[in-house]
Amino acid sequence: MRRRALTALAVLVPLLAAPQLAAAQSPFSVSGYVVILHSAPGSVVLQDVAPGATPGATWTVHLSAATETRRGTGVVVRGIPGAFALLRVGDLVDVQGWIIGANTVLAATIAVRTTFGGGSDADDDADDRSFIVAGVITRLESRGQGVVTLREQIGYGPGIRLWTIRLHPRTRVNGLMAGGDVPLGRGRRAALRLLRVGDFVEVSGHLEGWQIRAQVIRVRARSGASPAPFRLQTVILAPAQGTEITGSEFAVVGQTVPGAEVRIQVTGRFGVFNVPVASGTVTANERGVFTFTVRPSARVPGTTYTITVTSIFQGQSALPVTLTVRQQ
């Protein structure tokens, strides 16, 4: 009997001493602007917008097959490909999930609150900005209700996406000029008459599954032409003003007019010395997104970097945008 008791105790002691599974983490939520989409590892980088957040603080949001992404009213997709079909650089999103590392979240749900430029995705109202996509028309189909096939260049990573754009009697076609939109026509027949294969357009509407019900189609460029001029402005999405630079390099990410030439100049100031650090010119892609990597040759703690970005389109220059960051 004594031997059996000792045997039972020998089994029980290791079990009691073994580390126990931690209690399930409490759900965590964070809101921020999408500044980078990493399609290969399946992650999103957010710039934190919470009150009191450290200037320039970012979160890495990891996606999984179970992640649900919501955009607009009733549009819900699951998994990594679905998330990258809906998310755009510049979107303001709310993420719920669990912390899995320093400033790293495993996402359970991602809800798009506003699109780049401030359009709300939470309501289905007349501003027609619940979903926006830009690209080149590859096909016009007049049968049925009328369908337009749009080829969108993916902002980050190789490849293209094809969108099915459905027309209806309230679809408006506008020309996008320097002073704003110029109405060209309304309705399915007008859209099919005004549009042609090869036009570069921006479509605003509502996502229904994997199709877009078009509210407004803005013609930015006719077939074979460059995008027509419209209000030229530049927004720097990352880094944020006052960011502490900790690594050997950092990226300047922003958005402007698609196809614009973007000039970036970076100067460094340490004490009384002010020296050029980097400069270059890049071209904004079809969504207007641009990125430029800065690699200072010497990293001196306390150096203040001044970043100046200027967009030039069809001979017109936008007002320069400037911000400063600091080397830690």
Q: Can you characterise this structure?
A:
- The protein is mainly beta and 328 residues long.
- 9% of the residues lie in helices and 50% in strands.
- The chain contains 3 helices and 23 strands.
- It has helices at 2-17, 80-86, 188-194; strands at residues 28-38, 43-48, 58-62, 68-70, 76-78, 92-101, 104-114, 131-141, 147-153, 160-166, 172-177, 180-186, 200-208, 211-221, 235-238, 244-245, 250-255, 261-270, 273-283, 289-294, 304-313, 316-317, 321-327.
- The strands form 4 sheets. Strands 16, 18, 19, 21, 22 and 23 form a 6-stranded mixed sheet that branches. Strands 1-2-3-7-6 form a 5-stranded mixed β-barrel.
- Strand 8 (131-141) and strand 9 form a beta hairpin.
- It is flat and about 65 Å long.
- It starts with a helix and ends with a strand.
- Mean pLDDT is 76; it is low at 5-24, 116-129, 154-159 and 226-230.
What is the fold's blueprint, element by element?
Layout: H1 2-17, E1 28-38, E2 43-48, E3 58-62, E4 68-70, E5 76-78, H2 80-86, E6 92-101, E7 104-114, E8 131-141, E9 147-153, E10 160-166, E11 172-177, E12 180-186, H3 188-194, E13 200-208, E14 211-221, E15 235-238, E16 244-245, E17 250-255, E18 261-270, E19 273-283, E20 289-294, E21 304-313, E22 316-317, E23 321-327
Parallel strand pairs: 3-7, 4-7, 10-14, 11-14, 16-23
Antiparallel strand pairs: 1-2, 1-6, 2-3, 4-5, 6-7, 8-9, 8-13, 9-10, 11-12, 13-14, 15-17, 17-20, 18-19, 18-21, 21-22, 21-23
